[in-house]
């Protein structure tokens, strides 16, 4: 009930007024049944703008920190994210990553729409970064279609560090659903997971027109912030990274 009131009475109309979204390809989102919407992640606003546009309820995996804040503000934030159907995810890796996969699969097995950002975190510079393979593991395991989605303009409207978005028009593009039945039973094979993830990321790239960087976003950001001469070794990661 809270989700519907927020989407259609309060937050939805406000976001439409601020962003005046131009939407393309919405017909590609399946009207029924389980599906994954996999998108680029440029802004905190992405959490809300895309679900407002999609007729069906979209459940996202959100970082656990949104649910553990202290004080009145922390409790209100946690209540808000629970109210809109976000699922807290521990981003520490290892067993936490497996727990995130299970949470996502639970949503899909209920026939719902799961929203996920394969990059694992917001882009700090507006470019598209290498996808993590958790999205592929869920798509193969649950045998559900993946709808690629591109947010265009939200980085300019609300880049990382900006608390309130600028009022400006954005574009949201949905691509044709991707099916991965040919990979059935291979959700434990890294080569298959990488191939599926790269196919998804290519479609997001094609829709968004972003510059692509073959590196994980959090690693690129760490290298950018590190003192000169200090580098950080890249490590393959098949876990699910919640939105940041």
From TrEMBL:
Keyword Transferase: yes
All copies of domain Phospholipid/glycerol acyltransferase, residue ranges: 35-154
InterPro entries linked to this entry: Plipid/glycerol_acylTrfase (IPR002123)
Basic and acidic residues composition-biased segments: 234-244
GO molecular function: acyltransferase activity
Region span, Disordered: 223-244
UniProtKB keywords: Acyltransferase, Transferase
Protein name: Lysophospholipid acyltransferase family protein
Organism: Streptomyces chrestomyceticus
């Amino acid at each position: 009930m809270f989700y519907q009131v927020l989407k259609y009475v309060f937050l939805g109309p406000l976001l439409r007024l601020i962003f005046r979204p131009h939407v393309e390809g919405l017909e590609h989102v399946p009207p029924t049944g389980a599906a994954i919407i996999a998108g680029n992640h440029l802004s905190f606003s992405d959490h809300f703008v895309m679900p407002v546009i999609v007729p069906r309820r979209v459940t996202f995996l959100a970082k656990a920190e949104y649910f553990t804040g202290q004080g009145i503000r922390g409790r209100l934030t946690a209540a808000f994210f629970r109210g809109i159907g976000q699922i807290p995810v521990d981003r520490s890796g290892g067993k936490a990553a497996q727990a995130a996969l299970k949470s996502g699969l639970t949503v899909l097995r209920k026939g719902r729409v799961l929203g996920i950002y394969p990059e694992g975190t917001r882009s700090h510079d507006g470019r598209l970064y290498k996808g993590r393979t958790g999205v592929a593991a869920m798509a193969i395991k649950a045998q559900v279609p993946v709808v690629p989605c591109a947010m265009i303009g939200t980085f300019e409207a609300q880049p990382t560090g900006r608390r309130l978005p600028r009022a400006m028009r954005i574009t949201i593009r949905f691509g044709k659903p991707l099916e991965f039945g040919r990979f059935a039973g291979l959700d434990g094979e890294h080569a298959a997971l990488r191939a599926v993830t790269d196919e998804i990321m290519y479609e997001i790239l094609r829709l968004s027109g972003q510059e692509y960087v073959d590196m994980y976003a959090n690693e690129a950001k760490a290298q950018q912030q590190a003192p000169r001469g200090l580098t950080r070794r890249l490590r393959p990661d098949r876990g699910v990274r919640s939105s940041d």
